[in-house]
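Hi Q.,

Before the meeting this afternoon, I wanted you to have the flavin-adenine dinucleotide prediction in hand. No need to reply - just skim if you have a minute. The sequence and ligand are here:
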Amino acid sequence: MFKGFNFFSTDELLSEEERMVRDTVRQFVTKRYLPLAAAWHNKAEFPLEVIPELAKMGLLGVTIPEKYGASGSSYYIYGLAMQELERGDSGLRSFASVQGSLVMFPIYRYGSEAQKQKWLPQLASGNKIGCFGLTEPDHGSDPGGMRTTPRKTEKGWLLNGSKMWITNATIAHIAVVCAQTDEGIRGFLVETDRKGFSQNEIKGKYSLRASNTGELIFEDCFVPDENRLPEAKGLSAPLSCLNEARYGIAWGATGAAMACYNEALKYAKSRIQFGKPIAAFQLTQHKLVEIASEIVKAQLLNHQLGRLKDAGNAKYYHISMAKRNNVHQALKAARSARTILGANGITDEYQTVRHLLNLESVYTYEGTHDIHTLIVGEYLTGSSAFR
Ligand code: TGC
Ligand code: FAD
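Predicted structure with the ligand bound:
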């Protein structure tokens, strides 16, 4: 059983409940997910069969209140759960991130009571799957320029446009869609069986293969007034949802780094070259010490971020710094761990190369590494360098 990485006694920072949830998710990933992770990656499919298990563990909408059928747990617990899921695969964590932070959170934060009653319990139980459409083919880092437009009609809106690179696109029942109205950006709930709505899966991905990614297309797709998220006004609404998901990614990437470290350490101790285990060579030790140090730093960053978030004091720039740092370090850790595994490290017998490939997406989505540099840079200097 995976024991985590407790080098700086970070386990002591956890309450009994936090440790219990973490260990439950850890066991699920070890026993249920990892034995099949390579197969799902190779098939390039998200394993729909795990959704009821994720729901049973309360991992769909971790922080959404219990009265809507979700867990009502803390952000710290949400973070620990994402760490453990991404130790399995970034695609597994992505599913939970999107369903919880990018579909349930916007409905909870910006929806009407009727929308919450209708959708949140079904999403928490995994009976319905959601996706979140912000990115467009011509607007990725700069979503403010989006072109998807809803035209007002007597009883609702006619949506035209498209969204690209959308997680869960072709398996979703409901899409949270951001669109540019005459009054600015607004959010809409679009059932995926509506006339004028279609989805295409993006094939040929080398990264996040065990995750469903696609395009959403709207051609005079009618959406009634009651499907508009009444409180979502302006770009700040979707960006506030991204804060939730980016928070989970900061923790998740740390889980992926822990998986790579663990695998490389085990391998280094057993692989003999020049008459001794490669773990006994200084260069291998240097690599392992670098990875271990970055994991500890990420754990401590997550710990403080989690406590700030639960106290309502985590700012967007704290989250950007943690997402930026932890994903960057996890990607570096995965590359370095892969070298320790030698030729074996390029096969699916080991998980490190899968994490390495996945982390390339994680580095890009939810705000690229560069964009988070500019977000933190703007806060520190007072000068915006986006344009
Ligand atoms: P800007 O003028 O700076 O801001 C517009 C309005 O938004 C406010 N704001 C925020 N509000 C909440 N949280 C934040 N993090 C916020 N950042 C800014 C801001 O105060 C302003 O409010 P107001 O009231 O004055 O209107 O906007 P900009 O157009 O200059 O763009 C800023 C920028 C570049 C930081 C932003 O657009 C950005 O973050 N770009 C990256 C796009 C991105 O992250 N896309 C992610 C798509 S979803 C995804 O990738 C899911 S992957 C899922 C998975 O599988 O896990
Ligand atoms: P671009 O914005 O075109 O950026 C290209 C390069 O230019 C990057 O290196 C970037 O850092 C750099 N760049 C851009 N602007 C600047 C600047 N001002 N200064 C310096 N450098 C700059 N989106 C959703 O809405 N919902 C989803 O569910 C979703 N899931 C995704 C799943 C996967 C697997 C992937 C890969 C993406 C997903 N995305 C999703 C889209 C993701 O958020 C975007 O890919 C991301 O925001 C970057 O946009 P882009 O790919 O268009 O790159």
